[in-house]
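Support request, please re-run this one:
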Amino acid sequence: MTKRTTTARKLPPPARPEGDAKQVNAAAAEGGDVPVLEPERAVEALRRADPHLARVIALGGPCTLAPSTWSPFRALFRSIVHQQLSTKAATTILGRVIALFPGEFPHPREVLDMPDEKLRGAGLSANKLRSVRDLSEKTLAGVVPGRDTLARMGDEEVITHCTEVRGVGRWTVEMMLMFHLGRPDVLPVDDLGVRKGAMRVYRLRKLPSPERLEKLAAPWRPWRTVGSWYMWRAMELPEEAVRPPRAR
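Re-run finished. Output below.
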């Protein structure tokens, strides 16, 4: 892969957020679980750590990221259905699939027992059908563990387990970590929205490469999930208000 270069205004070294990753992890380890998201604490730390991010926080308001209580199976099932579709189309298909089963959401065993023709008739493509069946099988086999088990795993371990499912890549699992498991320090370096937000916030001439984004986001630790959320938020705000002035 060719490494992309990014020309950027040189930034002053920002302060470190309150409570580094080791401290946050150590505090959570007392209960045997990994760290959990604390948006208010994260926002205060990020505001002090990075003046560019502080500008976005001032304009964008409080972080409204509130993780769901969905199971990993449900979160990944939904992500598979939504792949390469508009939100409207994916929501329609997912609704049709769910309607095939009793209850709020199907159990993996119910998915495996449902005939192919019915799932295809609800709108699942052949590839997505194979993916949701593989997800169901791997959930029942424990390859994709339940929420309580994942709560005791580090982020990379969760990614390793879940990307064994057909059609599930790293980005998909990162979204689950952020929006469903509430992990505080996830940086989706391949996410186009996060990269575009960083390009605007830090006044870069090009989209940052994953390596460049890692460096820009280093001061956000251990709250890179919230920092990433504000990069998405930056794309919804007036560009001239978000972008810092160029050095004279």
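The chain has two domains: 21-66+184-242, 72-179. The CA atoms of residues 172 and 185 lie 16 Å apart.
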